[in-house]
Specification:
By secondary structure, the chain is an all-alpha fold. It contains 7 helices and no strands. α2 runs antiparallel to α4, α4 runs antiparallel to α5 and α5 packs antiparallel against α6. The longest helix is centred in the middle third of the chain and has 26 residues. The radius of gyration is 17 Å and the shape is globular. The two termini are 25 Å apart.
């Protein structure tokens, strides 16, 4: 239970981002023409949603850990969003009649995650450096 509460304490913006993506993936828009300004605009939205999710996960991980374990960071900022993306595409097909499982949406999601992880590896890692909220305990 304590570990579960630590997730809420250390990753509040990430959890909010997951919830926003969940909502946006399953809600029924009033009219498609109002949302679609040009062809394949939804693919750009998918890319940006999952790039944002991975970037937020990177930032919150660096902000809440003194010692960075890259396997955990990779798990939380790459594997988790990709699995969540696949799960959302699956839920769209099974729970709604107005959305479907689109492999190009999944591809856009994964490309957003990949782009964000590459960006964060070079930018966020340098910005945070060794700064952290926690002190080293020996």
């Amino acid at each position: 239970m304590n570990r579960f509460l630590n997730i809420f304490r250390h990753y509040p913006v990430s959890l909010l981002t997951f919830c926003v993506i969940l909502y946006l993936s399953l809600y029924k828009p009033a009219g498609k023409s109002a949302l679609m300004m040009f062809a394949n605009m939804d693919k750009i939205a998918h890319f940006l949603m999952y790039a944002t999710l991975s970037t937020v996960l990177w930032c919150e991980y660096y902000g809440s850990h003194y010692k960075v374990k890259y396997w955990r960071l990779l798990l939380s900022s790459f594997v988790l969003p990709v699995l969540f993306s696949w799960f959302m595409e699956y839920l769209q097909e099974k729970l709604t009649t107005y959305r479907y499982n689109d492999p190009y949406d999944l591809l856009s999601n994964v490309l957003g995650v990949v782009f964000a992880n590459i960006f964060c590896f070079f930018v966020v890692r340098r910005l945070y450096g060794n700064r952290s909220k926690k002190k080293e305990t020996r």
